[in-house]
Amino acid sequence: MATLSNGETIEGRKPLKKLIRRLARLQRKQSNYTKGSKRNERQKLKVSKLHYRIGRIRQDGLHKLTHHLCKEFNVICIEDLNVKGMMRNHKLAKAISDMGFYEFKRQLEYKANLYSNWISKVDQWFPSSKTCSKCGQKKEQLKLYERVSNCEACGHQIDRDLNAAINIEREGIRLLA
Q: Does the pTM of the predicted model rise above 0.85?
């Protein structure tokens, strides 16, 4: 879900991934019933309750995470992601929607105002993963499967997400100044 510049990584809850089998079973069972029948209505209610539960689990995790971030840090720098564009990748779409990135950003913004914190949004085109956090050298190509960032100039090796988090923090603070 998030990697902080101090090295802390926060895993998302992924409620849909955990309950997808149960949801599929309930929906499959519902498809066998005649439309408009009493059993179909009962089964539809079970499916909608499970969807509600998935949504509430996601909402709870996001509230806890944003509350933690706003209580812990005075300046919060985030990358303004193109979630709509990321959803076009059919291999990542389900995982991205399960995290709820837009809701995370929305909650973070209103809670930052509530706690009088500074929030800085770094542009989505800023090369946060491609730039070395130690020397500032920019890599031309970086594949998605490369999880460790290796700098050719200084030999610095660091986790790709942590490297991006450090660069986003520096850029965000530069934008606030």
A: no
